[in-house]
Amino acid sequence: LPESGPLGLRVDGAGFAYPDDDEQVLSGITLTLAPGEKLGLVGRTGSGKTTLARLVLRLYDPVEGSVRVGGVDLREADPASLRSRLCVVTQDVRLFGASVRDNLTLFRPSPGDERLREILTGVGLGDWLAALPDGLDTELRGVSAGESQLLAFARAFLADPGLVVLDEASSRLDPGTERRIEHSIDRLLDGRTGVIIAHRLSSLSRVDKIAVLDHGKIIEYGRRADL
Ligand code: ATP
Hints:
By secondary structure, this protein is an alpha/beta fold. The protein is 29% helix and 25% strand.
């Protein structure tokens, strides 16, 4: 994949069935995003939003059709490049019983503590960090739901991806955390391509295009302004 900048997305006639399952959960999915554009995915539960996001992240390959990111068919993309250029932020954040630093870098070489502090401050965790007994060396435990969400955003900023998949939290957090998350979403999407699984209508204010899924098919798709 291109090593820097936002990545375009092109899904062409993609269909998918989970292994050992005859029934297709996605079929005939076609959509495009220019680099930097944002797509909102909506549809009732079980309509296939998460599955489509998984194809974009190449957690699975389509059984028909193709998914191209940055002009490259994901089946031909270098796995290391996929890991560094694609990023997902979901509600289910995996944190480790390890230092704050390792939880951010995921045990990869660190860009330096100054950068890590800057990122944490940027997502609204500056005061939280300042209160930790050993700063970035503090072992993570007892992190609240809101804090883990914000840590997930910090991870994403550190990864600096060209395409972000965002599975928005469906349950509300306290207003202060909500504001910090909203702010982080805006900053993370700025200058990057985004696929947003939207659970709230208000989230659609930041997307350029919307795809409505129903039983694995797109029943409505277009620019937000035209729908
Ligand atoms: P929600 O809004 O509830 O997250 P969704 O629109 O994201 O729903 P998916 O999670 O993509 O929908 O599910 C689409 C279909 O695929 C559903 O019928 C679901 O039961 C099925 N499914 C999802 N994940 C798996 C899996 N890992 N293995 C088998 N079937 C799955």
